[in-house]
Amino acid sequence: MEKTIDVMGIGNALMDLLVEVDDNTLLDFDLNKGEMHLVDHPTAEKLLATLLEKNLKLEIVPGGSVANTLKGIALFGGHVVLCGKVGNDQHGEMYVQEMEKIGVRSNVNGHSAITGHALTFITPDSQRTFSVHLGAAVHLEKEDILETDIAKSKILHLEGYQLEGQTQETILHAIDLAKKHGTLVSLDLADPGVIRRNKEFLSTLVHSHIDIVFMNETEAQEFTGLQEKAALSALPENLTIAVVKLGAAGSLIRYQGKIIEAPAMAATPVDTTGAGDSFAAGLLHGYTKGWPMEKSARLGALLAARVIEQTGVRIHDLSSEKLVAEVEAQMLEPVSLASSSLVKIGIIGGSGIDSPDILENKTTINVETKWGKPSSAISCGTISGVKVAIIARHGIGHTMNPSNVPYRANIAALKQVGCTHIIGATAVGSLREEYKPGDIVISDQFIDRTTKREQSFYDGNYEKGVCHITVAEPMCESLRQTLISTAQRLSLPFHTRGTCVVIEGPRFSTKAESHLFRSWNAEIIGMTMVPEVCLAREMEIPYANISMVTDYDVWREGEEVSTEKVIETMKANAAKLKLLLKEVVPMIKYDANNPIRYALKGALF
């Protein structure tokens, strides 16, 4: 039979009910932030009633994982069919009508249960918290699936959510029909919880019946026990395409015996709902049209980037012609990993670069994390085409002392906006004659003398378990070497290494302390490197430090540390630091095999 349908999808037909709330309002709904909660009918009604009581604005968009993917394929002119189940109600009627409007043919039958919905709470940090009531979706039966549609389809696309519970038998029936008619079976594993509960079953299924698989890095680790490239390599050889999505770091694709590192595309996220579904849309569309895999992946990444810049998975305002043209242009000028959007550099600016005037295309975003707000709004932009995000460590205008800096929120915020590397810039005093004021130190070690700071994300309140992270070599050596070679090329006064004693502050040292620190063979003394570097390691982000010497500490006879002297030297240092950052950022490469990206393996108990 002729394959006239590009992709047929079977999935939970859910109305996405989108509402923007602050963290305090979210508490009133008794939902764990950032998690998906499956709820029964009475609980769903109670939550909706609370929404009405609070008079919160609700946006309604037809959704569901598979449906979101089909919407994207339809945008590019692909022929798609959705099979699902809705209620015989207003939402069910609206669902079918809206999907048909955007080019998705619906084989969606009605049921006496209400149409399922995903109530999505979007907080200012762009995190999503879901309350999902599946409703009629769970009543999908074998009789709802048209064998002729599967026979005419090039690809049958499925979601992991339906591979447990009462829809499992229906989906297995559909897979058997696909195999009967030579239709490729694509599966988005969708959720680590689904994998955890059905690991043996899913492993057997993927090994024997699946041709294309999508998973994010958390799902990949749950499925294989490994991360990124290692996880991809461990997936069964029978797969035609295997994808591990890395969020803002792009994706890894195994295809025709090789691993392709596909970059993400620059975006200012508003709501990350459907990012993975949209990526799958672009990739599957390109594949059905015979495009090279690199081009297909870029289309998926670009669609995902545009979708997350708005609330809900909306495609009607997007131009398929412009998106394809942008990808075509990229393919004519391949983006190197040194300067591609696979890299995003976080810079935590210490004293002296509070004002991030080194950025092009600057925008400012406010982010909130589980650990509160960072020291400042995040200044986003580019340096030589590379995405950069800057936080003023002490707040704009230096309003926070070292003890009060929200170190956890700063690192979490940079992770949240997709930073792949972090450079911390700090002001330090010198403990050695040869480390002169105005010099740059590419630090390699620290001695921690802080006493009042939260040292770990894993404190029992937000992240479960105990983390004993390895920091024998606290800095990312490849990032350090890039800084060293750049400083050398610029003929800046710098030192290739330095051990920093990190004190609590905000006071400066006594002479006795200063002589003690010198006896420890340390070269410099500062107040902010710790716990910043350790928290970056817990987030598995490569980190390096640029220390700017502002003064000789009080060990040197005739030297007194004063705020006035420090500020005067900092102003001179700021120009050198900005020059170094402008030159080094384009040189930083993304390395998926960097061991820091697997730092939590074996560290959690």
SSE arrangement:
Elements: E1 5-10, E2 14-20, H1 23-27, E3 36-38, H2 41-53, E4 59-63, H3 65-75, E5 80-87, H4 90-101, E6 104-111, E7 115-122, E8 128-135, H5 147-152, E9 153-159, H6 168-180, E10 184-188, H7 192-197, H8 199-208, E11 212-216, H9 217-224, H10 228-234, E12 241-245, E13 251-255, E14 258-262, H11 275-288, H12 293-307, H13 320-332, E15 344-349, E16 360-365, E17 378-383, E18 386-392, H14 407-416, E19 421-430, E20 440-442, E21 445-449, H15 477-489, E22 494-495, E23 499-503, H16 511-519, E24 524-526, H17 529-538, E25 543-552, H18 563-584
Parallel strand pairs: 1-5, 1-9, 2-7, 3-8, 5-6, 9-10, 10-11, 11-12, 15-18, 15-19, 19-25, 20-22, 21-23, 23-24
Antiparallel strand pairs: 2-4, 7-8, 12-13, 13-14, 16-17, 17-18, 19-24, 20-25
Distance between the termini: 55 Å
**What is the H level of CATH, i.e. the homologous superfamily of the domain at 344-598?**
Nucleoside phosphorylase domain
Radius of gyration: 26 Å
Work out the strand percent.
Answer: 15-25%
For the biggest sheet, the summary is: 11 strands, mixed
For the secondary structure, the number of strands is 25
Helix/strand class: alpha/beta
CATH class of the domain at 344-598: Alpha Beta
Oligomer: single chain
Shape: elongated
Reported CATH architecture of the domain at 344-598: 3-Layer(aba) Sandwich
The chain-level mean pLDDT equals: 89
> What's the helical proportion of residues?
25-40%
Poorly predicted runs are 334-341
Per the CATH scheme, the topology name of the domain at 344-598 is Rossmann fold
Number of helices: 18
